[in-house]
Design goal:
Layout: E1 31-34, E2 40-41, H1 46-53, E3 57-67, E4 100-110, E5 115-118, H2 127-138, H3 150-154, E6 189-192, E7 198-200, H4 203-206, H5 213-221, E8 225-228, E9 239-241, E10 246-248, H6 253-258, H7 285-289, H8 314-323, H9 327-333, H10 337-342, H11 352-364, H12 375-382, H13 396-402, H14 417-430, E11 444-452, E12 458-465, E13 468-471, H15 480-495, E14 506-508, H16 510-518, E15 521-522, E16 527-528, E17 533-534, E18 537-543, E19 549-555, E20 557-559, E21 565-567, E22 570-572, E23 577-579, H17 606-614, H18 624-631, H19 637-646, H20 652-662, H21 683-687, H22 699-706, H23 712-721, H24 726-734, H25 743-750, E24 774-784, E25 792-799, E26 802-807, E27 810-813, E28 822-829
Parallel strand pairs: 13-19, 14-22
Antiparallel strand pairs: 1-2, 1-3, 3-4, 4-5, 6-7, 6-8, 8-9, 9-10, 11-12, 11-18, 15-18, 16-17, 19-28, 20-21, 23-24, 24-25, 24-28, 25-26, 26-27
Length: about 850
């Protein structure tokens, strides 16, 4: 069996999930793990991998679920260790583990004859094969770091937890109204578990502001452990050890909290320190948005599949549910499923289009969203073997791929759904299939009019955007008197440690938010080309084009004076029908005088000029902190990376100047690519605009492609278009079936001395699908919590004439969609 190998350190062994579907060992057909690549495939996809790679040996994994044998009294036999379970799989939540038992089965299957060898089989199998099989079965999940319990399980147990001294000081901690004992801060507060002191934290630990009084208290007293108030739930809390200088676990936390009158088992932590019994029914946004207290009817079938929460992955789930409710995305990925899967690279787990197609098919096929079996049929089925029905899919593989290069999305922390939406659009743009780009439906042009206040001259520019950011016009609240009365009552309740009053939410007219969007805003550090100096300037923004699908973000999140993220808890009467035709750009008006077309000078520090001109950095050494600073200003991530690279890692300010100068270029948001890096052309030539003339791909790579039956000129163009990357070149060939029409042109180009210059034509501008500014609401994403760093996301989508709520894996018909509390709204254009 020459294709079998033993997994090496660093090999990812997939034995829980198919690379093309959400089949697992729990599925009826089980899962096939290739004994060479360690990729896993469901029954309908394993033949494709065999034909494509010639790998013939697979390990078939199957979990059987059976009803437990009953004892003489009718009950199940006593529990005992089950040696027949060896797969690291989630159990079926729909089955009572007291009534059913699991048995795992493994065997080798040799293709194409499907010859089976049961495992273990030490007598008949060579030693190397037995070692390889044992290594596969004992390997850890490649998603271990994404699992919801892993971050907590990786924390060390504090050495002070077992014998922690607690002073009998009579301190009892109230359920709300906390304040630092040494200052007036009411957020980021920590309870010292020795003496019960409540003190503020510091910026360094969990990205919250504070004056560091909790740390000072430790230095004065030596009391080592503290728990963050507002994070206490029945499952645990954030505990920090000052002595050990790291977050830790306290196995005796419930007892330590009870010492101060806190019943951990009845807690539901929130950032503002309130628990469930402090909140009135149907007032908390958690209850309103999730439609708690209402009996919701579950929905099943195509388009009604939920996504399981991996631990703070609800931001991803909500965005992807909305994305795959759009026909253009359905057609681009699920509609092209056979072609995308057939031409996927050798490792489909690392291919964006394959994973998008897999997720889209999982959500839309209905294969993983089936109604429960009738109760009278269950007994009949369970007499032999339970055939589990999977409801909801787990997007582990998708999340692992789309977040692998992002420092925030690859973590287990909560993230901003709006930032993930833009990140996804960026990935769609970079991995488009041929000329088809479904993200075109979101793209629109913004006309920015900047006026110099001193000379009254103007400049009109256009930029690309993918969503409309709408400010919250708090000053336009229609219930100001109620808000003032509520705030006074709330402060009094906190001061006297009484239950808080019923929440009063600011009611903001949508028209006021739209008006705030269209009003002029001051431009910080405006440089007037008419004055050749900094001056006061104002900017107004209008739509130069209207997109097919308009995404509206309500700018609910801001920073307080202490730099702690805050959220506006407001109600906005978002319209079902939206008309923004009055925001159409008009261009230069009669009587307006344009500012001179002069760029501001780029000031380069003297001590850095030599480094910039003579020593370009390696693309892999780009300062990511500067990149993220620029990205947070709203610029495309790839443009920020190029700006930092081309300014020699001299900081965000210098890179910002580069962005201002280059933001109108057609390839502004394209990925940073250095065609000559490490090759014939130098990175320095690329920086100064020169292009290497020798772009002829290596002859041995051309020979490999032509040996597969492709034309030589086709291979050369594919390699040129993909920087001589063999695997990407094959993908390029399959995604450009129209190539033959241009064969004569390519042959002519091959004989050209400057063969690397593909086209002298003027580059086209960004593609937009302009039309009417009339829209209808079809989806919205809501956020619960006080900041983007915490909380939960839920998505509502209008399907077949009714609203449906997607709350992680639960999909139900919505009874009262909270359209006034949304964070991101999705509108589609009404045909005129």
């Amino acid at each position: 069996m020459p294709t079998i190998r033993v997994p090496r350190s660093g090999d990812r062994v997939y034995k829980n999930e198919c690379a093309f579907s959400y089949d697992s060992p729990n599925s009826e057909g089980g899962l096939y793990v290739c004994m060479n690549t360690f990729l896993a495939f469901g029954r309908e996809h394993v033949e494709r991998h065999f034909r494509k790679t010639g790998q013939s040996v697979y390990m078939h994994l199957k979990r059987h679920v059976r009803e437990k044998v009953r004892g003489a009294s009718g009950g199940a036999l006593p529990k005992r260790r089950n040696s027949k379970i060896f797969l690291d799989l989630d159990t079926d939540d729909d089955l009572n583990s007291d009534d059913y038992e699991y048995e795992d089965e493994a065997k080798l299957v040799i293709f194409p004859d499907h010859y089976e060898i049961a495992l273990p089989n030490i007598e008949e199998l060579p030693a190397l094969v037995t070692i390889a099989c044992d290594a596969v079965l004992s390997s850890k999940s490649p998603y271990r770091k994404q699992d919801p319990d892993t971050w907590e399980s990786e924390l060390p147990v504090s050495k002070y937890a077992n014998n922690l001294t607690q002073l009998d000081s009579g301190v009892r901690i109230p359920p709300s109204g906390w304040k630092c004992a040494r200052c007036d801060l009411r957020e980021n507060l920590w309870l010292n578990l020795t003496d019960g002191s409540v003190l503020c934290g510091k910026w360094f630990f969990d990205s919250s502001g504070g004056n560091g009084h909790a740390l000072e208290h430790y230095r004065d007293t030596g009391y080592p452990l503290a728990v963050k108030l507002g994070t206490i739930t029945p499952d645990g809390a954030d505990v920090y050890s000052f002595q050990e200088e790291e977050p830790v676990l306290d196995p005796h936390l419930a007892k330590h909290l009870a010492h101060f009158g806190i019943d951990m088992l009845h807690m539901h932590g929130t950032e503002n320190g309130l628990w469930d019994n402090d909140l009135k029914p149907r007032v908390s946004e958690w209850e309103v948005i999730q439609e708690s207290g209402t009996k919701l009817k579950p929905m099943y079938g195509p388009g009604y599949t939920g996504l399981k929460n991996l631990g703070n992955s609800c931001y991803l789930s909500s965005v992807m549910q909305a994305i795959f409710s759009i026909p253009e995305f359905q057609r681009a990925y699920v509609g092209n499923l056979p072609r995308i899967f057939d031409y996927s690279p050798l490792d489909p787990t690392q291919d964006f289009n394959t994973q998008m197609t897999k997720l889209g098919h999982g959500l839309l096929s209905g294969q993983y969203s089936k109604p429960p079996v009738k109760s009278e049929l269950i007994e009949q089925v369970m007499k032999e073997e339970h055939k589990p029905q999977q409801n909801g899919i787990s997007p582990r593989m998708f999340k692992a791929f789309v977040s692998k290069s992002h420092p925030e999305f690859s973590s287990n922390r909560q993230q901003d759904a709006q930032e993930f939406f833009l990140h996804l659009v960026n990935l769609v743009e970079r991995n488009r299939i041929g000329s088809e780009n479904p993200s075109d439906v979101f793209r629109f042009l913004v006309e920015e009019r900047i006026q110099c206040c001193q000379t009254r001259k103007v400049r009109y520019t256009e930029r690309v955007d993918y969503l409309m950011q709408l400010p919250v016009a708090m000053e336009a609240a229609t219930n100001k008197d109620e808000l003032i009365a509520y705030e006074l009552t709330r402060r009094d309740a906190e001061a006297n440690r009484r239950p808080l009053p019923e929440l009063v939410r600011a009611k903001i007219p949508f028209s006021a938010c739209l008006q705030a969007f269209s009003e002029p805003e001051n431009v910080d550090d405006f440089w007037s080309s008419a004055l050749q100096a900094k001056s006061a300037g104002v900017k107004t923004s209008r739509f130069a084009s209207f997109p097919e699908y308009l995404v509206v973000q309500i700018k609910k999140f801001t920073f307080g004076l202490d730099w702690v993220p805050k959220k506006f808890d407001v109600s906005i009467d978002m319209p079902d029908l939206l008309d923004i035709n009055h925001l159409r750009a008009r261009g230069l008006q009669p009587g307006e005088e344009e500012l001179p077309d002069i760029s501001p000078p780029i000031v380069i520090p003297d001590d850095s000029k030599d480094r910039l001109m003579n020593q370009l950095i390696d693309p892999s050494d780009v300062d990511e902190s500067s990149v993220m600073q620029l990205a947070e200003m709203g610029f495309p991530l790839e443009a920020c990376r190029k700006a930092v690279y081309f300014t020699g890692n001299m900081g965000a300010e210098v890179a910002f100047n580069w962005i201002i100068v280059h933001m109108e270029e057609p390839d502004f948001a394209e990925p940073l690519t250095m065609p000559g890096y490490g090759g014939a052309a130098s990175a320095g030539a690329s920086f100064f605009g020169a292009t290497g003339l020798d772009n002829q791909p290596p002859e041995e790579i051309v020979a490999i492609i032509t040996s597969m039956g492709f034309q030589r000129n086709q291979a050369i163009q594919a390699l040129r278009a993909t920087n001589h990357n063999l695997e990407r070149a094959l993908d390029w060939i399959f995604s450009h079936p129209e190539f033959e029409e241009d064969s004569d042109f390519v042959i002519e180009m091959e004989n050209n001395a400057n063969a690397n210059i593909i086209s002298e034509a003027k580059p086209e501008g960004p593609r937009v699908k302009d039309g009417s500014g009339m829209y209808e609401l079809f989806a919205f994403i809501s956020h619960m919590g006080t900041s983007t760093m915490s909380g939960h996301y839920v998505c509502h989508i209008k399907k077949e004439g009714r609203w449906v709520i997607y709350n992680d894996h639960k999909v139900c018909a919505s009874e009262r969609p909270p359209k006034d509390l949304g964070y991101m709204y999705f509108y589609h254009r009404i045909p005129s």
